[in-house]
Amino acid sequence: MKTITLLIGLLICTSGAFAQKDSLKEKEPDTTKIKIGNSTVIILNNVDSDDYDFDFNSKDSSKTCKDDSDDNDMGLALDFGMAGYMTPSNSIALPVNQNLMELNSARSHSVGLTIMFKEARLAKERLYVRSGLGINWTKYHFKNNINISTSNDSTAFTMDSIRSFDKYKLRATYLQVPLLIGMRLGDLDNPLGIQFGVVGSYKIGSIIKQKYTLGETTMKEKTKDDFNLNPFKFEALARVSMDDFGFFAKYSLTELFESGRAPELYPFSIGITIGGF
Asked: What are the sequence ranges of the domains in the chain?
């Protein structure tokens, strides 16, 4: 593989050859690799000092110097997209009695960052199983001037007639564990990637952020609560990519709120994904 690392290595070896005519051979530095998609950050540690050198190289299609283990390293996957929810009939249009819960779709987002573990190959490089561990932030930005209040057994959405909100959003944070089956189709140097599977999540935090103007003063408030959100989420996930850039879609098989404590709604998200293939 012709990479920046190889060029630097050749320069180091060349300069070392002239510097070591009358000395013993130097020890090779320890290296640490962190893979992000098809790019790799390499940390070189000189064993005789505390100095660290950093290098960044991207994928090359050359096979002559390719390390077979490079395709099966741990990596990072980033998902970013629009967040929303559906009724039990799989409609994004809410019934009249739930109109207050209508979302501002342009400002409702889902962001996920996952460390993907090494894949278990089922058919060489074509078919594999892969898992990971990550975190997800889902933000629901409400279109209407509402107020969310909770009690032990219910979550209420009411119109706020006193304040006019510039921002009113509910954010939930989850730990997530995906389990995916992946396929690589076509040329393995630039394959069409397909993944499908499930994502199990556990809620570790939830907060409401609001911003409004009172007289000439801008007010910002935060309220931390569980809001009767379901602590567990179980989602179906599908991804399609070319190289390490693609698209994803997720749909929750579990309700957003705990059953019977709020309207029955099922979260979904769609967007772009980078890495993890």
From this structure: 4-20+27-70, 74-274
